[in-house]
Amino acid sequence: MLISIQLAIKNVYRKKERSLLTIIGVLLAVGSFISLLSIAEGLYERINREINGRKVDIYILPKDAAALPTGPIGTVGFSSGTLPLSIVKKLKKTSQFPHIKHVCPIYRVQQKIGNQTIIAWGIKMENFAEFFPYFKIKSGGRFFEDNASEAIMGGNLAMERDVKLESLIPIEGQPFTVVGIGVPHYSFQDYFCYIPFEKAMKLKNAKGAHEIWIQVNRPIKSEISDTAKAIRKAFPDANVKTKEEYLGAANEYVNYAWLLQFAISAIGILIAITAAMNTMLMSTYERIKEFGTLRAIGTTRFNVFFMILTESLILCFIGGLGGVVLGIMGSQLLDDTVQVLLQLSFPLAKITFNLIMYAFILSIVVGLIAAIIPAVIVYRMQIIDALRWE
């Protein structure tokens, strides 16, 4: 077995140019795989952090609204439909919903600042701490007042836009004074702006809310489920989702993005498999007599098979290592490009441990597929036929 590995390594060095081209093919395939899927991976992680960072048990949305907390991604998540504020009043007053603790209407405003599009979330001050329990204001700042033209900036957004306390930011042509800046905690909340709910609606002359968030008295599954059923029955024209349903619907969009990006990267993967297989076939046919000689002096079929497999795995593993490095650099470049094209105020891509593991598994799979045909050819060949090979 050890001799088979040594011979495999020796053959990698024997044809340096051909080995290098194979490594480059795998490197490009793995690099593109990581770069493309880092967008979906980052979006998936941020959506989960965003939704889990809110203390919302039930969401009420317009029928045509997408369950996406990210909002400005190509305007996905926004809807022309709104929910009448009468729903909020009924939810607060009626005895039909005894488990409801807090009701919070939300209105979002898109605002372009420079070359970026930010989202200003309209929310009542009385609801802010209840529904964003992890959002903390830096020392020296405070929360806005409901009837004032005041704003709170997410920590990362303020840092990127160089916004300080008492700075003025324009939203729909109206200046808002920044009275508080959030402490970054690595979610989408860090890249949003928050203003009073009534002010947000007045900016757009809106008559309703984009979403209504609900907290129940006891966040247990049965109480949440019963309350959601009661709301669906009372408001059949609204789209009512529990937190788990909302998260599942949001992740469904991410899964579509993941599949699309994987399909694109699959082209590079197929090219890498073809290149690696071509290299292994050429290498195998050049060494048929060598394999025959090894068999003649007592080497088993399995050791010859293992030698070819090892050579392919070495080439593809080296390509995988280089592909990870290339993918990390490509991910940053792709993320910058997406931010510019979609005018986003926040990054999307993220290199996760799982993504790197997938990349290494991919390089190993490429090596296995590339080696299987050449290895089987040699495994099945008779010694006498190998020694007579021309």
Overview of this protein structure:
With 390 residues, the protein is α+β, with helices and mostly antiparallel strands. Helix 1 crosses helix 10, helix 2 packs antiparallel against helix 8 and helix 2 packs antiparallel against helix 11. Helix content is 56%, strand content 16%. The strands form two sheets. A nine-stranded mixed β-sheet has the order 6-7-5-8-4-3-10-1-11, with helices on both faces. It folds into two domains: 181 residues, no CATH class; 173 residues, no CATH class. The chain is elongated, with a radius of gyration of 29 Å. A hairpin with a 2-residue loop joins strand 3 and strand 4.
Task: Please describe the structure with a list of short key phrases separated by commas or semicolons.
single chain, 390 residues, alpha+beta, 2 domains, two-stranded antiparallel sheet, 12 helices, 11 strands, 16% strand
**What is the total number of structural domains?**
2
Amino- and carboxy-terminal Cα gap: 28 Å
Biggest sheet character: 9 strands, mixed
Strand content is 15-25%
Ordered list of secondary-structure elements with their pairings:
Blueprint: H1 2-14, H2 16-52, E1 58-62, E2 83-84, H3 86-93, E3 100-113, E4 116-123, H4 125-131, E5 150-153, H5 155-160, E6 168-171, E7 174-181, E8 193-196, H6 197-203, E9 208-209, E10 211-216, H7 221-234, E11 238-242, H8 243-286, H9 288-296, H10 301-342, H11 353-380, H12 383-387
Parallel strand pairs: 4-8, 5-7
Antiparallel strand pairs: 1-10, 1-11, 2-9, 3-4, 3-10, 5-8, 6-7
